[in-house]
Amino acid sequence: MKVIVIGGDGYCGWATALHLSNQGYDVGILDNLSRRYWDSKLGVDTLTPIAPIQKRIKRWQELTGKTIDLFVGDITDYSFLSQTLRQFEPEAIVHFGEQRSAPYSMIDREHAVFTQVNNVVGTLNILYAMKEDFPEAHLVKLGTMGEYGTPNIDIEEGYITIEHNGRKDTLPYPKQPGSFYHLSKVHDSHNIHFACKIWGLRATDLNQGVVYGVLTEETGMDEMLINRLDYDGVFGTALNRFCIQAAIGHPLTVYGKGGQTRGFLDIRDTVRCIDIAIKNPAEEGKFRVFNQFTELFSIKDLAEMVQKAGQAIGLKVEIDNLDNPRVELDEHYFNAKNTKLLDLGLQPHYLSDSLLDSLLNFAEKYKGRVDKEQILPTVSWHRK
Amino acid sequence: MKVIVIGGDGYCGWATALHLSNQGYDVGILDNLSRRYWDSKLGVDTLTPIAPIQKRIKRWQELTGKTIDLFVGDITDYSFLSQTLRQFEPEAIVHFGEQRSAPYSMIDREHAVFTQVNNVVGTLNILYAMKEDFPEAHLVKLGTMGEYGTPNIDIEEGYITIEHNGRKDTLPYPKQPGSFYHLSKVHDSHNIHFACKIWGLRATDLNQGVVYGVLTEETGMDEMLINRLDYDGVFGTALNRFCIQAAIGHPLTVYGKGGQTRGFLDIRDTVRCIDIAIKNPAEEGKFRVFNQFTELFSIKDLAEMVQKAGQAIGLKVEIDNLDNPRVELDEHYFNAKNTKLLDLGLQPHYLSDSLLDSLLNFAEKYKGRVDKEQILPTVSWHRK
Questions:
Q1: What is the superkingdom listed in this entry's lineage (chains A, B) (predicted)?
Q2: Where are the domains of chain B?
Q3: Is any Cβ of chain B less than 8 angstroms from the Cβ of A80?
């Protein structure tokens, strides 16, 4: 089965491309390499020394005999996208290819506009290319749990049945996203839902939680296959960032009280979730939504777990409660459902001491590459 | 009070700008005149011979002594927008300045992408300009009843209180828009809601129904002030289009069974609703939503009303049930609330025989300008 991974040079995309290749799919990577470029422009870098995509793919072939086709270009360029898909002829399209950082989208007006235009137009182009040439293909699209915000009721998977004034309907779950990036994912979800309805396309929106970890079975095979690991204030996410901070003796940066509760998952589960979604495609005309996380944690709890794990290997780990640069509740109800992927067979890697140990050791190994100037958050959600 | 009307050269915008000027507001019009340009490109034209915006404004001043400032430019050009607002210093910003046709957005990929980028970026730019320079100003933004789609439960005004698994919250009403244009309005609503929340801006989203009629107290003063009246398959909307079809002896074009029920309002109420919203601004940080329509009608009912009114003045009026070019239910539950504007004092002009008479006579007067080739819908929502 032919699967194209858009954004296959990124953190989730690279791990997924290799996993799918290892599982026997015929994999292509389409990527504009923009994450590497944005890193350069912001002066940040992954903790890990990632190889150029061409060398990564070559090494993968040397190690496994499996080839991955590479298409370097931008999906907001419709003629490039259309030609690439016609050449590759995908049966499933996995779409990670978006600007995925909330702080990046909040830097200023230009970054907000860029994020929304880039993400919305890229996804619209994919939908039109599917309509024209691949109406039977299955779109597996990365959404985010952040589309829901933090409502005071349970979060369902994409839809909610509402009884109101004696009548009942199942409607898209209300969205309260918390950044211009998260908003772009909400826009995408609405656009994809509509395209499925009018053109009979099939799509799965994976509302993913915060991903942690770095090694997968495949990326761990060889240092040339190593995945990126972001720790900076713009692209770094909670648990990964905390482990790197612990390794270099920097206080863990908790925003506000740390009562923000979110869904989390191990990157080894991300790659399995994509595989599960592909193996169980959405029906024709259906816009299906899975909540893709395995556990709920508060930021405070995670910081304390990293502190404890760090202390166990002799690190001195402090926790700093920074003024929250974001506008969000730091204490709230949060109960999100995640049974759909479990029902399809996902066997989660729950967060464990051994994972934290391994991540801390990994961070220790590369800590010489850390630029301490990049750790603190510099982007504010506030007007003044 | 200084009010800038973005899109003040359009159908609703022009009528509103004059009404606000007549009410004593200090009015500016910001418009890129793109509707006139799109008409040229599509080869369509308003039934009525509209004067250039500069002449319209000059005539208004001659008749009333009231001046309206004119700023010709595009709000997707941030430096133009920002400079214009700094020069005019608005206390309220009325935003009609978007691509507003569902069929236009469905012509092809380019028109879908254009509609979403144009509308979303324009609104984002307004939000950033307000954040930078006019955080106290009140944004009065035109949304659409089409954001809600046709759910099987009552439609509330922007928000719905949901009880779920023993808990309760009031959340944004779920959106099921039916075109890439309607989707752009949903994207706008989410973006504006977020900006109000994080920056403390104040905004009113007016989810307007289908507007009919052409004369207002102000635009009827002089032929040089005449408003546009669209009858073509791309920009023409249900009731106005039917009256023009009746006047020229063309069958009324009902899509499918005509059981589609929508909210409608007289353009004389549109201009009053804007005035009411401005006079009663949203609180700081609040994203307020009003459903702006006065009556619900099915398309079939409207066609029959026009048929009857036409026959009463001696016209022979047939009704044609065309294959529906859109993907939408043509029989469905529809019950939308509209009490918020009524509570603030709106006194509706309900659809009456005399309005239909006047609209039919108006259409008769200009029927020599009709291009019959432009009447039938040519844009399809369907894949094949």
A1: Bacteria
A2: 2-374
A3: no
Cβ-contact A125, A81 below 8 angstroms: yes
Distance from CA of B246 to the nearest CA of A (A): 31
**φ, ψ for residue A299 (rounded to 5)?**
-60, -40
pLDDT in tens, chain A (384 residues): 999 999 999 999 999 999 999 999 999 999 999 999 999 999 999 999 999 999 999 999 999 999 999 999 999 999 999 999 999 999 999 999 999 999 999 999 999 999 999 999 999 999 999 999 999 999 999 999 999 999 999 999 999 999 999 999 999 999 999 999 999 999 999 999 999 999 999 999 999 999 999 999 999 999 999 999 999 999 999 999 999 999 999 999 999 999 999 999 999 999 999 999 999 999 999 999 999 999 999 999 999 999 999 999 999 999 999 999 999 999 999 999 999 999 999 999 999 999 999 999 999 999 999 999 999 999 999 998
CA–CA separation, B319 vs A189, rounded Å? 38
Q: Which among B230, B11, B234 is positioned nearest to B101, based on CA atoms?
A: B234
Tell me which architecture the domain covering B2-374 has in CATH: 3-Layer(aba) Sandwich (3.40)
Give, in degrees to the nearest 5, the angle at Cα B323 between B319 and B328.
105
Q: Which of B77, B383, B384 to mutate against chain A (most A CBs within 10 Å)?
A: B383
